[in-house]
């Protein structure tokens, strides 16, 4: 039930899932049950999203208490031990749109377990949940039945409890992605080491700096044959896609909701990687031919980026998604992926970095340069997207109409020449009439042309809009880590921290820095290849198009030669 509330303080949103609120602003709360200290509601401007529970009071009727003050409640308080708070009993989906076939039961996977069952807090980097959902071992109860966490052997550093008084302070802003992603806890050495880490992702030094070690078994995967299928005797309809990985050359069939499940596992696990966004959802028109074709094109690009990424392509959950054909094994693999402990900040424990020394100031300068580049590229991608979209609209509408008007005008001239038979020249009249029809044909060619060039360009631009939108949060993680290094070194110089502890923070900051640089390097490699291919394809299709137009006009021109 929606409740009225009042904002106690100003809050400025940091990402698209959050909304800004002003002191004394009237709000609508969708549920008074906070999720890791966050509420979902609507502000007075009609914006819907998340804001801190401790920043609002819920207004009650006279018969009840005046308000609920979350600022004193354990779940709502941004206190230092909120990292170990109990998980909420219900999840909230932050997807702004939905599809009917995404909300049905998962009978073709597992009736007893759905994506929604996993509590999801406010998304952090890449949409990651907050740290309190990343370390199940810290809770008295668990999200999944039968879950048995591995015992943590030790914290990352070997400090005794008597030294904890000198530790670097935590950020006061407990809502920043640096905190929510768990990277702050990793930098400070509070992420527990597991008894055994089965997966390892290596970073090596390349000609342009740190880079992910290539997948030793590279592969590609085709996305083909979107097919409408039904179940429940035709009551439920959906589209399935045929996926064929080159390493096994055996097809599997997946629905969009299966892609969506995988995408959420990727966001949950890979803190410092820019996970490519899935094609957008659509509530209506899901079975229209144009929409199905558009989604297929964009899934092909998404799959190409997944298989080319040295880390994402090796992820066990991704391999299971591509290769598993047995229903029983599928359910086991799905549950195993959902119980994965090496997610979020714990994923950083799986990264092995080179021994080469890197000056942290040089790393920060390099990150700052990439930040400025990515911002400029994001603006230019948006500009090109708007121009290309407008051009599509003109091709389909304006250009076709103008050529049709021109063709009709030529045919009107031809018809008028027939009005005085003694002076009428049939060959000329027919040639002018054919010219009119030619321009009508050219108009139809313009209307169809975006499918051959502009649509493919817009697909690539959409993919890169998603990739670029991930980097501000990822860069913020490195900035937060770098600030902790400076603070720890200052405390060490002042004698308030052991140098060994400060060195541990610096070492863990190197992991974040190397990972970000490796991701930057991979992004640039893909950017060069993708935009080269995009521009070549566009220009080739433009040449073919205008050659076809030229052929139509030349054919019409020859009709006037023998008059």
UniProtKB/TrEMBL annotation:
Biased composition (Polar residues): 122-133
InterPro entries: AH/BAR_dom_sf, PX_dom, PX_dom_sf, SH3-like_dom_sf, SH3_domain, SNX33_BAR, Snx9_fam, Sorting_nexin_WASP-bd-dom
GO-annotated cellular components: cytoplasmic vesicle membrane; plasma membrane
Membrane spanning stretches: none
Single Gene Ontology BP annotation: intracellular protein transport
Keywords, in A-Z order: Cell cycle, Cell division, Cytoplasmic vesicle, Endocytosis, Membrane, Mitosis, Protein transport, SH3 domain, Transport
Primary residence: membrane
Keyword field contains Membrane: yes
Amino-acid positions noted as binding a 1,2-diacyl-sn-glycero-3-phospho-(1D-myo-inositol-4,5-bisphosphate) in the UniProt annotation, renumbered to this chain: 255, 257, 295
Domain of life where this protein originates: Eukaryota
Subcellular locations according to the entry: Cytoplasmic vesicle membrane
Ranges of residues in domain PX: 219-329
CDD domains xrefs: BAR_SNX33, SH3_SNX33
MF annotations from Gene Ontology: phosphatidylinositol binding
Lipid bilayer topology: Peripheral membrane protein
Stretch list, region Disordered: 116-165
Gene3D superfamilies listed in its UniProt record: Arfaptin homology (AH) domain/BAR domain (1.20.1270.60), Phox-like domain (3.30.1520.10), SH3 Domains (2.30.30.40)
Domain SH3: 1-61
Annotated signal peptide: none
Pfam families membership: BAR_3_WASP_bdg (PF10456), PX (PF00787), SH3_9 (PF14604)
PANTHER family: SORTING NEXIN, SORTING NEXIN-33
Family label: Belongs to the sorting nexin family.
Name of this protein: SNX33 protein
Organism listed in the record: Brachypteracias leptosomus (short-legged ground-roller)
């Amino acid at each position: 039930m929606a409740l009225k509330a009042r904002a106690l303080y100003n809050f400025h949103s940091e990402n698209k899932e959050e909304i800004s609120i002003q002191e004394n602003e009237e709000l609508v709360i969708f549920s008074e049950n906070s999720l890791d200290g966050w509420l979902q509601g609507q502000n007075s401007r009609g914006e819907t999203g998340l804001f801190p529970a401790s920043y609002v009071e819920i207004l009650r009727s006279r018969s009840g208490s005046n308000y609920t003050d979350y600022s004193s409640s354990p779940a709502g308080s941004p206190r230092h031990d909120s990292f170990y708070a109990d998980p909420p009993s219900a999840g909230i989906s932050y997807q702004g749109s939905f599809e009917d076939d995404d909300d049905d039961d998962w009978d073709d996977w597992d009736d007893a377990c759905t994506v929604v069952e996993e509590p999801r807090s406010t998304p952090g980097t890449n949409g990651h949940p907050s740290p309190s959902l990343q370390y199940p071992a810290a809770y008295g109860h668990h999200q999944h039945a039968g879950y048995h966490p591995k015992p943590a052997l030790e914290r990352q550093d070997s400090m005794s409890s008597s030294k904890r008084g000198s530790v670097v302070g935590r950020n006061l802003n407990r809502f920043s992605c640096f905190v929510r992603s768990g990277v702050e806890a990793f930098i400070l050495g509070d992420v527990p080491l597991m008894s055994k880490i089965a997966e390892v992702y290596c970073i090596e030094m390349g000609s342009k700096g740190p880079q992910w070690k290539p997948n030793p078994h590279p592969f590609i995967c085709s996305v083909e044959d979107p097919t409408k299928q039904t179940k429940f005797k035709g009551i439920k309809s959906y589209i399935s896609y045929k996926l064929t990985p080159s390493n096994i050359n055996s097809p599997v069939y997946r629905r969009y909701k299966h892609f969506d499940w995988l995408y959420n596992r990727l966001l949950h696990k890979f803190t410092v990687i820019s996970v490519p966004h899935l094609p957008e959802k659509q509530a209506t028109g899901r079975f229209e031919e144009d929409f199905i074709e558009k989604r297929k094109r964009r899934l092909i690009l998404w799959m190409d980026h997944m298989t080319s990424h040295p880390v994402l392509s090796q992820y066990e959950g991704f391999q299971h998604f591509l290769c598993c054909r047995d229903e029983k094994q599928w359910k086991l693999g799905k549950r195993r992926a959902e119980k994965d402990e090496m997610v979020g900040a714990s994923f950083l424990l799986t990264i092995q970095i080179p021994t080469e020394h890197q000056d942290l100031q040089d790393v920060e300068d390099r990150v700052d340069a990439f930040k400025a580049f990515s911002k400029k590229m994001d603006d230019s991608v948006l500009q090109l997207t708007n121009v290309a979209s407008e051009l599509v609209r003109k091709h389909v509408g304006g250009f076709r109409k103008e050529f049709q008007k021109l063709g009709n005008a030529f045919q009107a001239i031809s018809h008028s020449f027939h009005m005085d038979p003694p002076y009428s020249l049939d060959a000329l009249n027919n040639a002018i009439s054919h010219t009119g029809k030619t321009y009508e044909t050219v108009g139809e060619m313009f209307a169809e042309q975006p499918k051959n060039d502009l649509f493919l360009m817009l697909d690539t631009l959409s993919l890169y809009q998603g990739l670029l939108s991930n980097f501000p949060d990822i860069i913020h993680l490195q900035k937060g880590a770098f600030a902790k290094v400076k603070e720890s070194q200052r405390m060490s110089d002042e004698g308030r921290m052991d140098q060994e502890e400060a060195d541990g923070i610096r070492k863990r900051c190197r992991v974040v820095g190397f990972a970000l640089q490796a991701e930057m390097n991979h992004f640039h490699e893909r950017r060069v290849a993708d935009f080269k291919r995009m521009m070549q394809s566009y220009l080739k299709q433009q040449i073919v198009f205008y050659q076809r137009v030229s052929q139509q006009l030349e054919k019409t021109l020859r009709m006037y030669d023998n008059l």
